[in-house]
Amino acid sequence: MDISHEPEEQWISGAGNALAYVTWHGSIIYRGFGVNIDKRHHLRCDETGLRCCYLKNV
Which of 32, 36, 39, 51: CA 20 to 30 A from 13? Predict the structure, then answer.
């Protein structure tokens, strides 16, 4: 199994809100077949903690 990532965008406002996007790349061998997976991870936080988070296919 091989997993890597690349940060795409990170932002912090003066009010303390944060937004980040990361793209995850993965490859795995399952039952003799190679499978590649790419996901985009979105995180949004404020002063109280995590507000929104999701993964989607890219």
Answer: 39
